[in-house]
Amino acid sequence: xxxxxxxxxxxxxxxxxxxxxxxxxxxxxxxxxxxxxxxxxxxxxxxxxxxxxxxxxxxxxxxxxxxxxxxxxxxxxxxxxxxxxxxxxxxxxxxxxxxxxxxxxxxxxxxxxxxxxxxxxxxxxxxxxxxxxxxxxxxxxxxxxxxxxxxxxxxxxxxxxxxxxxxxxxxxxxxxxxxxxxxxxxxxxxxxxxxxxxxxxxxxxxxxxxxxxxxxxxxxxxxxxxxxxxxxxxxxxxxxxxxxxxxxxxxxxxxxxxxxxxxxxxxxxxxxxxxxxxxxxxxxxxxxxxxxxxxxxxxxxxxxxxxxxxxxxxxxxxxxxxxxxxxxxxxxxxxxxxxxxxxxxxxxxxxxxxxxxxxxxxxxxxxxxxxxxxxxxxxxxxxxxxxxxxxxxxxxxxxxxxxxxxxxxxxxxxxxxxxxxxxxxxxxxxxxxxxxxxxxxxxxxxxxxxxxxxxxxxxxxxxxxxxxxxxxxxxxxxxxxxxxxxxxxxxxxxxxxxxxxxxxxxxxxxxxxxxxxxxxxxxxxxxxxxxxxxxxxxxxxxxxxxxxxxxxxxxxxxxxxxxxxxxxxxxxxxxxxxxxxxxxxxxxxxxxxxxxxxxxxxxxxxxxxxxxxxxxxxxxxxxxxxxxxxxxxxxxxxxxxxxxxxxxxxxxxxxxxxxxxxxxxxxxxxxxxxxxxxxxxxxxxxxxxxx
Length: 691
Description:
There is one protein chain. The chain is α+β, with helices and mostly antiparallel strands and about 700 residues long. Helix content is about 40%, strand content about 10%. Helix 6 runs antiparallel to helix 7, helix 10 runs antiparallel to helix 11 and helix 12 crosses helix 13.
C-alpha cells in the first residue's frame, strides 16, 4: 500500500550512500561488490533509484534481500574448538540491501533526534558520536565529582547478546508510540522479520536457516535500531552518570564513602536489570567490572570494597579496558599508552614481513602505512589522555624506527632531519595536534546530541546554549581555592596548584583557534531542533574546515619550533609525502640520504671515519657534497647535460622536488652515475684512476 508519509527517495541519498561504501567490502550471497553499483549509478542513476524507491514508498523489505551468508571463522588462541563459542560468524549481506539500509539509517537517525527517542548519554552508531565522547564524558564527571572530595566508583556492564535480543514487535510498538512515520515503522518491521542465513564453512551443506530474533550483525542500521531499543534503560542519577556506547554501559556514582557507592550501585543495577527484563534484554554479569577511582595525589590505602550482583562477587579492578581505553583508578595514562605501544610494535613487525624480498616497500607506501595505520594505533587515546614523559620516551623510540624504515636513512641521521624527510611529525607535536582536533570537534559538536559537548562550560562561546542537565559542575561552586576548578580561559599556573576540569582543558586549547570568531560553529549531521536560530549549516561547515586547517598550521609551527633541524638542512617540515618518495625504495633512499647529508658521498663521512677524505673521487676538484654531485661535478657532466639540463638548484623552492618528469630524470641520473651508491656498487670506470 502506498504510504503518503514517505518522502520520495532522492538521487542525492543514493549518491551519498555509495560515497561512503568501500569497494573492498566483501559482497553478500549475490557476489555483487559496491564497485559495480557505483559504476551503475555513474552511468545511469535512475536504475538504483527506481529499484529502491518502491521499498521506501511501501515500507517493505523484500525477502530476496533478507538472506545473508554467515562465514564461520575460528577464534585464535582457543585450546579447543569443540564448542560453538570457539568460532566467530561474519555476516555478509547483499550490497544493494546495504545501500538502502544506509539511506534509511540517515533518515531514522534524524527522526530519532527530532522526537527524542535517544538518550543524550547514548554514544555510537551515529555521525559525530564516538567512543572518545563517551570516555570523555565519563572521566570528566569522575574528576568533577572528586573536586568536592567525594569518593567515586563505576560499574561497567555489557548487555548479553545485545543485537540478538531485539524483539521486532517491542521495537515496533515503541516506534509507533513515538509517532515515527508509518512508512519507517513498516520498513523496520519488514526488515527484521523472516530473515535467513546460510552458514559458510568447509563442507557446509549450503542450506538457509531462518533467523527469528534480533538484528543482523553486519547491517548498517542494526546499531541504531539497538540503541533505540535500549534507550529506556537510561536513567538520571543524582551525583552520578550513566553513559553507554551501543551495548556497553557504565554507571558512575559518588558519595562520602566507597561503601556507600556499593550500596547505590547495587540498587541501580537492580533497577536497570528490571528495566532490561521488561524489554527482553539482560546483562552479562560475569563480564561486569568494578573500579574505585582515586585522585593522583591520594595516599590513603586503596579501597577493596567488593560488590555482589546476582550471587556473583566482584572485587575492584586495578585496570579496566573500556572502549579501547585502559583506565586505572588514578586515570594514569601510562598503562594505556604502554598497551598502544605494544600493539603498534606488533603491527609494525607484521607489516614489515609483507614486503617483497630485496625490493622493499616504496617510501610513499611506507608513509601511508605510518600515517594511516601505525600512527593511529600508537596515538589512540591521545585526544583524551596526555602521555607522560616515560610513555613518550618509548613512543618516540618506536616512531624513530618507523621514520627510518620510511626513508631508509642511517642511524646517524639526526632525528629532526629524519622526521622532515619521512614527513612524519614528532610524536609530541602530533599528540598535541590530536588533542587540538579533539577539542575542536567537541567544541563544535551539538551539545544537545553529544554528552561531552553538553559539559562545556556555560561561558564557552558556542552557538548552542544547551548544557547537560545531569552535569555535576554545580558541585564545584564555593570550594576552597585548591579544589576550585580553573576557569577555562585561564592558563594553568606553574606549579599547577589549580587545574581545569577535563572538558574545560579541551576548551582552553581552542582559544588560539578562536581568533577572529565571536562563536564557534556547530557541525550538524542532521536538522537542528525546531526554533533554533543558528547560521546556515554550509557556512558553519566551511568555518569548521578552516579551523581544522588552522590546527594543521599550528602543528607545523610546533614542529619547526620544538624540533629544529641543523643549520645545514634547509627543507621545511611537511605533512604530505615528498613526490620523490614514489620512486623505488633504494633510489628514494639515496635521495633521502643525500638531502640529509648522511650518505655515501665523500663529503658526508661516517662518524667512525677518523681521517675522512672529502674530495670528490670523480673529479678531485672539490668536496663531494649533494650540490656538487648533482649540479657541478665535471666527471658527471655528460649525464647531467643529458638528463638535468633544466635543473639549477636543489633548494627547497626548486622545481626539481615538485615536477615528476624532473624527478624521474633525477632518478635516472643517480642510477646511471651511481651517485650516492655504496662504494662496492660503483664500477671502477666511473672513478678516476689512482695517481
